[in-house]
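UDP-3-O-acylglucosamine N-acyltransferase
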Amino acid sequence: MSVAAFFHLSRPYTVAEIAELTGARIAEGRGFETPPALITGVAPLAAGHVGDLCFFASARYVDALETCRATACFIRPRDAHLLPARISGLIVQDPQRAMTLAASKLFPHALRPESLFRASGVSPSSIIHPQARLEPGVTVDPGAIVGPGAEIGAGSIIGPQAVIGPDVRIGRDCAIGAHVSIICSLIGDRVIIHQGARLGQDGFGFARGEKGWLKTPQLGRVIIQDDVEIGANTTIDRGATRDTIVGEGAKIDNLVQIAHNVVIGRFCAIAAQTGIAGSCEIGDYVMLGGQSALAGHITIGEGAAIAAKSGVARDVPPGARFGGAPARPLRRFLRAEALLDKTARRDKPDKAI
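Predicted structure tokens:
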């Protein structure tokens, strides 16, 4: 079986070119080979070979750095003495950020999903309603459906089997993955929605009736602002009486549930399996750890961070760090956990826990 290379190198870069585009300083006496060393790939330290670019950002990987055979490595000034002489050192304050910049230049096609059919234009096997409007340069893969009144901007890609509902608006240079469904939604420019995501379906709204539950009409929309990325199998419900909104530049991981009427600010980061109940308001630059859960009708202040697996049932002030279930200020949560562990050990001194 042949080895598949899913992302192809844009072109080889010299170490000096990598340093220039990332603002790195080349360690003295390194990186000026004749002919100059070329970077043709990226790799983790443990798997780095000639031609590869790596980064070192944690002392836990010292052993991997010692045996690494990569051509160049991003590294902090304080760690530069750890770098083997055979590797060209690229000195930066933030190795991970520098690696991201370099990899984006080396493999630009990995930044945004492309047509899974490796085609352009509208596939004959897609179904485009006559009343839909597609600007020039839109790609629609086989099996996709675009409903009446939908509008899709130039440069956008609609993946196979995706469903774009009536009157949906999708901006320019967006990438909509396979099997995505979008209804009752307005999507900005340069939005990425990965495979299997669901946007605009009914929110979970019911009222008690004499014979069970009465369904509450969900009359709002989903609004996704520019430069948002939404992970695979994430669900975003449309609003009931107001819009569900995801602010500019927000990044949402896979398997996240966002309920009706939620408002998410700009440049938030939400990790996988987070659940956000209805009518929450989340400020700009908030970070939510994986599997965190937010109760309905609460406010998370700007710049706050919620630890993984936390259960948040009350408002969180701007800039605060909360953790635990129920969530409380992070230092208090950590002290409580340490005290609990100490108590448990004291109760059973004869057993290792």
